[in-house]
Batch of 2 targets.
Target 1
Amino acid sequence: MTQAITGKSIRKPSPPWTSADVRTDFPILTSTDRPVAYLDNAATSQKPDAVIAATARYYKSMNANIHRGVYRLSVEATEAYESARAKIAAFIGAPHPREVIFTRGCTEAINLVAMTWGLQNLKAGSTIVLTQMEHHSNIVPWQMVAARTGARIVVTPVSPQGELDLAAYERLVADGAALVAVTHISNVLGTINPVAELAQIAHRHGALILLDGAQSVAHMPVNIAELGCDFFAFSGHKMCGPTGIGALWARGDLLDAMPPYQGGGDMISTVSFEGSTWNIVPHKFEAGTPDIAGAIGLSAAVDYLSRLEMARIAAVEADLLASAEKALRTIPGLRIIGEARQKASVISFLLDGIHPHDIGTILDQEHVAVRTGHHCCQPLMDYYHIPATARASLAFYNTPADIDALVSGLHRVIEVFR
Ligand code: PMP
């Protein structure tokens, strides 16, 4: 038994634990009035009791603004917020907590880099290398910066299986790229990109590399130092934490040199009408009152995931993925989009002659929650010449029963539409 931030003792399931062992930690999954096979984990994960309780405990017993008060509550809230930063830094293998900047999520983390490092360092003729499989949040901020600086965007192609063309990538980077921005795991294809290799190639040619870790931090062990990236962006809500909180990790020397992102309280050292000076990192990038409860909830999520161990989570999800893909391949007319050799637990698929939205609607009637649409990856849909896919994305708390529900739901879809 270990003592959690919630103050409540939390069961550490004995290894090797199964999905069924941990599912009961998630109240929404065990609710009997609204049973659901929740298969939209790439959009957001469910929250364990420990995270819900930690957030509530902050509001019930510690609520005060941080960094400003000399009184006990404020000091406690500040300590909890800053220890959340340290915990998150350790979880991703960051060399120092000050290199972790709290943001609203992955999207804001990427925008922060684009609007600070990007506007400061990119100029007419600079090249930003993206990939065909990027989420809109790792495309649009760069387009906005490109429009303001005259930088150009080039795109690494993918193969029909959903793997990056590494030779083409190297050619694009070698052509004088300033920055590479690439997703660690594709939210549509499930492809786990060889990001350590991408980072080495980027650095060999003098480019920096930003990794979009939205889909990786919750599904595999992530160690920034081993990946060798310069920026790493992720969201708390996809890793069992609350919505509205996420983080940017960046190399300390880059953060020191970057201008502030937003102006306001806490990010300054001095203010006068003649001009202002900036606080030290990380505070320089955290203007205004942050999501204190969110950071504390995310810290509890990190505790929770760490107790389960990320390597075990990855192994459990790999088994689930293999059995889900095997079962889906028995369904007539079903085509999986994304068959990379290194794949995380995301399965995009099409059913011959049936629109993905119809698939999603009928599955919902069968109490199966999947995502349908372009998944914020329109350029990837264009590459496959499709408007949308249905997507089942698994987490460690999904059980074989959830996969059975998906498969029988899809048979129902076929009955209705064929
Ligand atoms: N990148 C990827 C690969 C994603 O899957 C997502 C969320 N779907 C994001 C970025 C954006 O994350 P958020 O909306 O939490 O900022």
Target 2
Amino acid sequence: MWWTSYVQDRMAANEQVNEMSIQGLFSELDGLEQEAKDRASGVDTEGELTALTKDFLGKKGRVQQVLRGIGSMEPEDRPRVGARANEIKAILEALFAARLADLEQQTEDRDLAKRKLDLTLPGRVPTCGVAHPIHAIRVEMEGIFSRMGFDVARGPQAEEDFFNFEALNFPPDHPARDMQDTLVIEGGRLLRTHTSPVQVRTMLGYELPIRIIAPGAVYRRDDDITHSPMFYQIEGLHIDKGVTLAHLKGVLTHFAQELFGDGTGVRLRPSFFPFTEPSVEVDIACIFCHGDGCRVCSRTGWLEILGAGMVDPNVLRDCGVDPEVWSGWAFGVGVERVAMLKYGIKDIRLFYESDQRFLSQFQR
Ligand code: FA5
């Protein structure tokens, strides 16, 4: 029939039109590829390349604009055009990435060319950290006591008035508190002025007998060549049945001789602390003049290293320890003071100025 051939002719004509517009899109995409290649080879900076990439591959870029035409095509033609468009996208992405790598390489080459490399210069030796002298000597002191069977106990640096003063027999407003003029912080705590509060915490918290040392930082309103506002102490506490001052002297003599050498003499002098009775200051024979008298020991032949004494029966009782059954001693030694003697350092502030010329001398 006549209309059958008419329809067939119309369909053929339509297909021809479709095919022509598809070919048109393809050649447009080919044109884009060529243009992108030409322009990419002409850019000189990474900034220009970024702009070019956006121009071609951005959301509103040229490739995307071409793809908008796909919507009006016959559904069976779309996959062919879509595949070609993706192909072009991948080609352009690879092209821009390669150009970026080129530009980066050029920048690096330019930088290197500017640098003058002198292969005869000596290499840089990496500097290696060393243990801080106060840390090193603290570890050494802890080692001596732990070999004598002392455990290590710890307490907070922000301490309660009760543990720092009251439980140690310093009543409120007692003048003995003034010697340690305390830094009080918000919340009713204070920066502990000595490590002695750990005595109280240990007696309240642990079973008897007790043999501990308690190392740590303490704070006072002090500042001169032999006194630092922050310094380290090591507290010692020994509570058992039949413990006497003779045991204290034996332990401290062993400690002094391990640290300062065989034969170092130790003497106890009467003193006062509110929480020990009797109280003593402990001196070692001057390690510079060996007792003959020199400027360091003010011609006395002795150097003071720590305070100590028998734990006051009141303190024992307040901590739930029966003084009729148990006795004990305690001591508190200044770590910086020991380090100053051992290394012959005259100014305590050198430890805390972070001067590498000073600190690097302690390399082991
Ligand atoms: C006390 O602190 C007592 N708690 C020690 C004690 C413990 C006595 C147990 C009895 C029983 P003293 O204030 O003397 O005592 O300090 C002890 C040591 O800390 C001193 O011998 C000294 O070596 C060191 N020392 C004190 N103040 C400073 C400071 N500002 N800077 C550096 N070291 C210090």
